[in-house]
Structure formats: C-alpha cells, structure tokens
Specification:
Chain A contains eight helices and ten strands. By secondary structure, chain A is α/β, with parallel strands linked by helices. In chain A, the strands form three sheets. Chain A has a five-stranded parallel β-sheet with strand order 7-6-8-9-10. A three-stranded antiparallel β-sheet of chain A has the order 2-3-5. A two-stranded antiparallel sheet of chain A has the order 1-4. Among the domains of chain B are: 8-119, 2-Layer Sandwich (Beta Polymerase, domain 2); 210-434, Cytochrome-c3 Hydrogenase, chain B (Orthogonal Bundle). Chain B has helices at residues 26-37, 96-106, 186-192, 196-204, 211-225, 232-260, 264-285, 305-329, 333-339, 347-353, 358-361, 369-372, 376-380, 393-417, 472-482, 491-498, 503-506; strands at residues 8-10, 15-17, 23-24, 42-52, 55-64, 69-78, 84-86, 109-111, 146-150, 162-168, 171-178, 438-445, 450-457, 463-469. In chain B, strands 1, 3, 4, 5 and 6 form a five-stranded mixed β-sheet that branches. A four-stranded antiparallel β-sheet of chain B has the order 2-12-13-14. In chain B, strands 9-10-11 form a three-stranded antiparallel β-sheet. The longest helix of chain B is centred in the middle third of the chain and has 29 residues, at 232-260. The chains are: A alpha/beta, B alpha+beta. Chains A and B meet through helix 1, strand 6, helix 5 and helix 6 of A and helix 3, helix 4, helix 7 and helix 8 of B.
Chain lengths: 251, 507
C-alpha cells in the first residue's frame, strides 16, 4: 500500500491541464503555410505521393495529405509546416490550404446542425469502427482517453454498443470487406447522430484511394459532421476538433 | 544437414538473379522443403506463388538459423496443367497458412490439406463469388454445446476480426478466427504505385503499430534491389528506432493487460510511460509512431547529439518509474493468479505451429532475426535473446518486461559507444532504378516477430511481384490453440498478451 501511494505521489498530476492551449514543438508537422515564392510547381505536384497538391490555384488538400513533409524538404521556400494542430473542420473545403493564407482552419458555424451544440456539448458517447485502418488512428483515439489527454473530462467517451452511442468515428479507407459491417453499425445508432472521419485514409482513402479492395459508397449517403486530418491525427487534433464542433471555440 | 550442395543460400537483405533460384519439380520441391523444415534451426519465412506468363511460380524461403542465411528454391506450375498438388501441411503443419493463401489467390487445390479455407478474401482472389460472410466455420452438433460469435466490430477501439467460440459451459472447446476485414490490397498497390516515395508511404501504412518494422524491411529490400549502400549511421538509426518501437508497444501492452487484470494503477502508469517514449519519436521525426522517419537510401530526420541527450533524459525518467511499477505489478498476487497457467503453448506446439518472435520465445523456441540474420547494426551491437519456458499468458507478460529491459540496455550501450553526426547520414534516394530480373528478401525482427518482404522484378526493372508477411500470419493460429480448454472469460488476456496484427495479416 505504501509503495502504491509512493508511485501515485511521484507521478503527480499527469494530465495536460489545458488541452486547448498546448504548444507542440517542431519537427511536429501541423497545418502547412504556402508562400508566394515562385518555384517549379509542376515538380511539387509530381512529388506529392498522395496527390494532395494541385495547381491553379496552388493548394494543399489536408484531406489527402499524409504529412510526410517531403514537399517542405524539397521546396522549403514555398511550403512550411507549422505546429498548429487544430486542423479539423466540418467543411471538407476548409481543409484546403491556399497560397498566402496563414489563418487557422476553423469550423463553419453556419453549417453545424444546431442539435449538435444543444444535445452533445456536455456529453458525447462515440462508437468507433475501423474499416481497413492501419491501427495508427486507432492508437491515437485510444490515447485520447489515457491519463495524459483524458478526453473523458469533457464527457467524451468511446463505448461498446452502437445502441448507446451518439455518433460514429470511422477510421481507415473503408475496405470492401468492412463496408456492410460499417453500415450496420451506423444504422444501429439512434438519431440524432454524428459522423466523424478520422485520418487521411477515412477522409479521402489516402494512399489506398485507387485500390480495388475499398468501397467508399457508405459515405455517399451520410452527412459528415467532422473531418480530422492526419496520418494519424495527433490526439490534440482529435480532441480540439470534437470540442470545436460540439462546444465552439471557447468551450 | 544432408541437404543438396547446390542450394541457393542468400543473406538477409541480399538480391539475386531470378534465374539463379533453383527450379525443382514438385516432388523434389516438397521433399526438400520437408527435409529442411524438420530441422529445429530451420523455419519457413515465406512461401508464396505469383503469376507469370506461362503459369504460376512458387517460391519458398527457408531461414537456416545455424548458417545465418536463407535458402531459396522454386517450383513452376504451367498453364494447362492440373492445378492440384499434394499438400505439405500434413508433414509440416506450419505451412498451412501459406498453402491456404495460394489456394485462395490462384485456386490451386492442395489435396489432403486439413483446413483449406479462405485467408483474407483478398480483392483479386480466385473465386470472387465467395464473399466474406460465406466463411465456412467449423461447427460441432451437440445439445450440450453452444457457439459464441464476436465481431467483426468489437467492444472498443480495435481492428475488426470475427471470433467464433464453441463452448461447453464456460470452457472453450474450439476457437476459430476469421480475418480479412482489413484487406486494402496492399501487395497490388506496391505494383500499381510506380514512385518509390509512394511505395515508401505504403510500407508505413501496412501496420500503424509496426511502422518502423515494416518500413525498414521495405527500405532494406529496395536498397538491395537498386544497389544503394546506406551509411552505418542510418543502419544504427533504424535499429534504434526499432528498439524504441519495441519498448513503446510492449509498455502499452503491459498497460492493456493491467486493465484486464483490473489493476488500474499499473494501467495508468504504464500508459503514461508509453507516452514519454512515443513523444520522443515525435521530437525525432515529427510523428509519434515514426511515420516519415525511414526512407529508402537515407533519411530526412537524422539522429543528432542533441537528440541523444534528450533520449538519455527520457530513458532515465522512464527506467526509474518502469522499474518501480513493474516491481509491484509482476509480484501482485491478483495479477499472477489471473495470468499464470492460462493459455499455454508448449515448446512442441510452438514448433509445430511455426510461431515466430515473442510468441515463439515465450515457449522457449529461439526465433530472433536480430541474432540469426542480423543487419549490420545488430552484428556491431549484438543483442542477447531472452526466452521463457511456460508459454502461458504470464510468460508473454513477463517476456515483455524482460525485452523492455534488454532493449533499454542495448540503447544505452549504443548511445555510449556511437557518435552521431549529421554528416554521416544521407538524404533519401527515390530515383534509382531497380535491377531487372531479380529477387530479393528482407527480414526484420519487429516487436511482434520477424517481418519478411520479398520482391521480384521483371526484365525492365519494374516490380513484378511484392510479398509482405507480417509475423501475425504465423501466430494467429497459436492464439486459437491457446484458447482450448480455457474459460471464455480469459480470452481478452490471451488476445492482449499476443497482441497480433489484423491489418498486417489482412494487407
């Protein structure tokens, strides 16, 4: 008993007190910024392994980005990754970063279903489904609940039964083999419910987007409430994204 | 060993001319395979087939731990001939999964195979009419027995798999695990993606918890196929990252096992300890799981003396708390009682099943690529293997602790004796073409066990075939056997003590 108490004492308070204001250090790669420097944009477009970079206008789509940083290594004068980890949004278009824009990615307040703020701001129980995920997003979702990040303090928790859940978190590019199980799980969640896509694979298929083994037709019929980019997203990205959606910036 | 002298023996990470691989007829092929695999020091690291213009080519790679090399031989099945072969599984049980895979992909019928069922319902399988919901489960008809089906969606944030238990009361008579839900067509994508960087990213996404393991295996393979010499420091960095991955995941597993033993102090403290290690990986390369660290030919994130100092501080804090916490946890009667003598795999069973990595060493079977087929880093800084005897949940739990300690010691030895200098590394090389008509094999001891990647190139130097084998391929069967005559409520501790990969298996 004495030894246990000693360990408790030595560990002290491990939780991060303010998850909204943590500062991450480089080389962590968060939201990129694009300067107006003139470079060989075609070469940049060709370089990106996931086709996240497009031209005219020059743009990086974080919904397709693996955050490998190769573009910034090759053209440091054009692209710089900041450590801004608040990169989740409810609008797919908000994940596109254009030249010269250095404002952060935000939630589009007008397109939020009002019921989300009313019903889910104090308590949100989620069901996660891994549909072809590589277990990295799953690790980070698990980490959100550990003693360091402690997402449970906001009433956000993952649970076992979809019948008890308020929403679904999808990871992975949605494999053909999981498509039906994902749909059944989604249908089992009572209304009102939210859908969160976590990680580049879920948002756009990522490196697997051309594979014949995936089937993303599930996404045609559902409204997506939150896109969380990253490969995998940092727990801070996940938690801040969900909080911005359910409580707003100040919550 | 009485094997023929004309065998092709290659080293880990070596490439050879495709024509140098002996082509045997099936009788010779099976005799040789059985002869070699009866030896205790030999095991099959990969056995697969791929389509050629005139039929199927079968390649078998057998690691000979005593000679520190890999024996490669092949067999052709021509179009028009009957796709039916006598199975090797009745002689060497460990080959069952490889034959099932070949059967699923190409429709080759292995006669006398006891369990010729689909492996992963891959997208380019031979029989596309068979869907994942049509899996032919084993069943026993009896009024006294009941079946429990779990999955593919489980109660928690984990990957999908279907578990079918046949129980007599609380006791499990039989467990069958159906996988394939995570199949994303990775092997096909390796051929479809023509850029080296794309393939590099793909290798990082095979299994998110074994990023370093799979990516360094891939990188070694590509370097061998394109004759790239990497510097000593890069080899050292890869080994260092591999050991950090091992420490982090083993610590996380220990936390998960504490949850199942209802020991929440351990669960939380081990969880906190893991955070420290993966946050260090982030400060090294920008990603907590090590994505973007390993690149073909070099790296963008070289290890520096500053990072060395940070790592020493991180390890010092880690060790202090880890020792104290594990000292308590591993002596706790409730933990010991929960884990001891549950889910045993004997040494003999482990040999038969062909388990690898931690799942082999827990049953006193020596399987460790770092010792038997080491890369330069592990020959210069040798690591000692630890084994346990019993093969139960506690053995796996204990082995994680011992491996953590040993990896920490190895890292200390490395950091004390090696000076890191960014001038000793190189930037990645993505543009060097691959050698034509070649075969290469690459092995790495990931935290689960040996990872094996094989590649074959065509006459233009394009990838003709790419084969990934995660250690879980061998080890899932061991989990099924562990559950025999065990209470069904002990499934979670067995499952977590193995912590096998779904996505690595399903590809």
């Amino acid at each position: 008993m004495f030894k246990e108490t000693k360990i408790l004492y030595q560990n002290g308070k491990q939780y991060i007190p303010d998850l909204r204001r943590v500062v991450l250090k480089p080389p962590y790669r968060g939201r990129p910024e694009i300067s107006s420097a003139q470079v060989d944009e075609h070469a940049l477009e060709e370089l990106c392994p996931l086709g996240a970079i497009s031209r005219k206008p020059f743009c990086i789509d974080l919904g397709k980005c693996a955050f490998c940083g190769e573009c910034a290594y090759a053209f440091p004068e054009k692209i710089k990754f900041t450590t801004d980890y608040k990169i989740a949004s409810n609008k797919r278009d908000h994940l596109k970063i254009y030249e010269g824009i250095s404002t952060g990615i935000v939630i589009d307040e007008h397109s939020i279903n009002p019921v989300i703020r009313k019903v889910f701001s104090k308590s949100l129980k989620l069901r996660q489904v891994s549909a072809g995920g590589d277990n990295s997003c799953e690790w980070e979702l698990n980490a959100c609940g550990n003693a360091n990040f402690d997402m449970g303090r906001f009433g956000i928790e993952f649970l076992a039964s979809p019948r008890h859940a308020d929403g679904i978190v999808v990871t992975g590019p949605i494999s053909e083999n999981m498509a039906e199980a994902l749909k059944i799980t989604y249908d089992a969640i009572p209304d009102p419910k939210i859908v969160i896509l976590c990680g580049v694979d879920a948002i756009s298929g990522g490196i697997f987007s051309d594979s014949k083994a995936i089937n993303r037709s599930f996404l045609n019929d559902v409204h997506i409430d939150l896109f969380i980019p990253g490969n995998p997203p940092h727990p801070l990205t996940i938690i801040n994204g969900i909080l911005d959606l359910t409580r707003g910036k100040k919550g | 060993m009485t094997a023929p002298s004309l065998l092709l023996r290659i080293k880990n990470g070596q490439s050879v001319d495709l024509k140098a691989i002996p082509v045997l007829n099936y009788d010779e092929f099976s005799d040789l395979a059985v002869l070699l695999l009866k030896e205790e020091t030999c095991h099959c690291v990969s056995y697969y087939a791929f389509k050629q213009e005139n039929g199927l080519k079968f390649i078998m790679a057998i690691a000979d731990d005593s000679q520190h090399d890999v024996i490669i031989f092949s067999h052709h099945l021509l179009n028009g001939s009957q796709f039916e072969l006598p199975s090797l599984t009745p002689h060497i049980f460990a080959l069952h999964i490889f034959e099932r895979e070949i059967h699923e992909n190409f429709g080759v019928k292995f006669t006398n195979h006891p369990w010729l069922k689909p492996v992963r319902f891959s997208q380019n399988r031979f029989n596309n009419d068979l869907k994942i919901n049509d899996y032919p489960f084993y069943s026993i008809k009896s009024d006294e027995l009941h079946e429990v089906g779990v999955g593919p969606v489980h109660a928690g944030i984990i990957e999908p798999g279907h578990f079918r238990f046949i129980c007599n009361g609380e006791n499990v008579l039989h467990l069958e695990i159906q996988l394939g839900w995570q199949h994303r067509g990775i092997e096909q994508l390796f051929l479809d993606k023509k850029k080296m960087l794309q393939r590099n990213i793909l290798a990082e996404n095979i299994a998110g918890d074994t990023v370093i393991g799979h990516t360094s295996t891939f990188a070694q393979l590509m370097e061998s196929l394109s004759d790239i010499e990497i510097t000593e420091q890069i080899q050292i960095e890869r080994a260092l990252a591999l050991e950090l991955e091992r420490i982090a995941i083993h610590t996380g597993d220990t936390a998960a096992l504490c949850v199942d033993a209802a020991y929440y102090l351990g669960a939380n403290v081990f969880g906190i300890l893991r955070t420290g290690i993966i946050n260090f990986t982030q400060s090294w390369c920008g990603n907590r799981l090590g994505k973007s660290l390993i690149r073909v030919g070099g790296t963008h994130s070289s290890f520096t003396e500053d990072l060395k100092q940070t790592l020493l501080n991180v390890l010092a804090a880690y060790e202090k708390m880890y020792i104290e916490m594990s000292h308590l946890t591993y002596r706790l009667p409730s933990v010991q009682n929960r884990f001891d003598n549950v889910g045993n795999i004997s040494k003999n069973q482990a040999h038969l099943l062909g388990t690898v990595g931690l799942s082999a060493r827990m049953s006193n079977v020596m399987r460790d690529i770092r010792i038997s087929h080491p890369t330069w880093a592990y020959s210069s800084f040798p690591i000692e293997t630890i084994m346990t005897l019993k093969g139960d949940v506690f053995a796996r739990f204990l082995l994680k602790r011992k491996e953590i300690k040993r990896s920490v010691l190895w890292i200390h030895n490395l950091l004390d004796n090696y000076n890191f200098d960014s001038s000793k590394t190189k930037k990645p090389i993505y543009s060097k073409p691959l050698k034509p008509d070649s075969f290469a094999i690459s092995l790495t001891e990931g935290w689960r066990g040996e990872i094996c990647h094989c590649a074959v190139t065509d006459d233009k130097g394009e990838l003709l075939h790419y084969k990934v084998k995660d250690p879980s391929m061998h080890n899932w069967k061991a989990l099924e056997i562990s559950l025999r005559d065990v209470e069904i409520s002990d499934f979670p501790i067995n499952n977590k003590s193995y912590n096998l990969s779904y996505c690595g298996h399903d590809l």
